[in-house]
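User: Show me an example of a complex going from sequences to structure tokens.

Assistant: Sure. Here are the input components:
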Amino acid sequence: MLNLTALLSGLVFGLGLILGGMTNPSKVIGFLDVAGLWDPSLALVMGGAIAVASVAFAVAGRRVRSLLGSPMQIPTKRDLDPRLIGGSLMFGAGWGLAGFCPGPSLVALAQGLMPALLFVVAMLVGMLGYELWTQFNNSNRGATPRPATGAH
Amino acid sequence: MTIDWQHFTPWSSLGGGLLIGLAASMLVLFNGRIAGISGIIGGLLKPQAGEIGWRFAFVLGMLLAPALYGLFAQLPTVEVAALHWQIVIAGLLVGVGTRFGAGCTSGHGVCGISRLSPRSIVATGCFMASGIVTVYLTHHVLSGS
């Protein structure tokens, strides 16, 4: 059942990305190009998504278990560390360079677009590189592996 | 600042946003999980018991979306202006950056801001600013226009 709701959520998420225009990198770059001809559409994508999701998160925040009985796993970290800021700056640079972020790149890949395939492969290599780096660091320090920060 | 009225799509973008919000709501209310795409994919690369099924199902749903959308409407055009080497560098930056920063546009930008997480608000400010600077550099400074 949990897999079915996850599948439906992914499907609706993907439909939203397509309808919203997020899967088109030139539209994403039009949003980030505030010095040129600025296309504000993606602010409405984010605004619309936040308007709906904030209600759900207000409900979820008061629950210990989900409607299907699984534990609520909402991040609790509140500290601002260099990893959060440095990582986000890196992500933004990549987002601005190609116009893809993780979700839309997967949807564009499913449309059979070669540039999206190239992007997704490079992104997976980057994520695997991060995993190897983290494991190497943990084993070097002899520490127990830290749980993933934030768990987004 | 000049608004690009020709490409501005307020209604479809708002509609898309509402669907994304609905999807994030479903995942947190039914599964108790954050709809953060980079985190969901990242978890597939570090397999742990009980963490594979729902992540795989979510990604499968996303991959099926264009086929379903195509049954009812024409898929919007996808234009990629970046060169191949730029796409590879961009992918690496997004892969490493979202894992270090613990989230992307969905996990921080939508879910994090919705629950007023200070970390997510700062992260979203950082990746927006860095995206804007990158586009300014590539489209106005380095291109000479």
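The lines above are the inputs; the final block is the predicted structure for all two components together. The first strand of chain A starts at residue 37 and ends at 38.
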